[in-house]
Amino acid sequence: VQLVESGGGLVQAGGSLRLSCAVYGFTTDKYVMSWYRQAPGKERELVAFIIGVSGKTGYTDLKNRFHISRDNATMTSLQLNRLEPEDTAFYYCGARYGSSSYVPDHWGQGTQVTVSS
């Protein structure tokens, strides 16, 4: 099982990025895929999740700016819009088998998002 994130980078405030999570060794239809982020000096926090078997999604209070999607059986994305400097963090993709929990069993290595003011 392997998760590989991509799409991070440096962007100005108000801009957008699309993060992708490619998975290897499994397909996401029986997993809950999630995105977390961790800013310097802070704990890792949930951003959004999507349940593979149903397509249902869940968000924290970032719902109005961020959108999670299951692009295909091996790719999950996170669209980041109207980015703010406070969104600067490492963004991690996670996977949990089943449909009852979004706390990952498996993690990617993360991708850095930096938002300049």
Can you describe this structure?
The structure is a single chain. With 117 residues, the chain is mostly beta strands. It is built from no helices and 11 strands. β7 (66-72) and β8 form a beta hairpin. The radius of gyration is 13 Å and the shape is globular. The mean pLDDT is 96.
How would you summarize this macromolecular structure in one to three sentences?
By secondary structure, the chain is an all-beta fold. It is built from no helices and 11 strands. It has strands at about 1-5, 10, 15-25, 30-40, 45-50, 55-60, 65-70, 75-80, 90-95, 105, 110-115.
Helices and strands in order:
Blueprint: E1 2-6, E2 9-12, E3 17-24, E4 31-38, E5 45-51, E6 57-59, E7 66-72, E8 75-80, E9 89-97, E10 106-107, E11 111-116
Parallel strand pairs: 2-11
Antiparallel strand pairs: 1-3, 3-8, 4-5, 4-9, 5-6, 7-8, 9-10, 9-11
Order of helices and strands: EEEEEEEEEEE
**Low-confidence runs of at least 5 consecutive residues:** none
Q: Quickly give the structural class.
A: mainly beta
Largest sheet: 7 strands, mixed
Helix content: under 10%
Average pLDDT for all residues: 96
Number of helices: 0
As a percent range, the share of strand residues is over 45%
CA distance, first residue to last residue: 37 Å
Number of strands: 11
Our Rg estimate from Cα atoms comes to 13 Å
Coarse morphology: globular
